[in-house]
Amino acid sequence: MAAEKPSNLTIRFLLRRGLAPRTWAMLETTGRTSGLPRQTPVGNGMVGDIFWIVAAHGRQADYVRNIEKNPAVRVKVGNRWRTGTAVLLEGDDTGARSRTLPHRMDATMGRIMQTQPLTVRVDLD
Hints:
The protein has 4 helices and 7 strands; from the N terminus they run αββββαββααβ. The longest helix has 11 residues. It has 125 residues and is α+β, with helices and mostly antiparallel strands. The protein is globular and about 35 Å long. A 7-stranded antiparallel sheet has the order 2-1-5-6-7-4-3, with helices on both faces.
């Protein structure tokens, strides 16, 4: 596994303590090999009882590969964890999807950085 960027470490630290900006959330997947919980900072895509993620690097992202193996996830927004089931949406228009997300600046940055975008829908319990 590659070394984590300092900005991700900072956001993860803040998210774990409920101190991160509202534009961020924490996604928890189960490691596809280890079976251990893996937490990844993601843009806050909460819309009602659905949590949307546009994975900028698609299946290159470890959390996407974890979801392929086990779609049961947890999402932390603010101080609240919610469980759900993640679904990878092949063929979804990721550009249009990102424009519907609640935090427009974060979505714009994601579109700039993306290489192989893939939409992930998390149906929350």
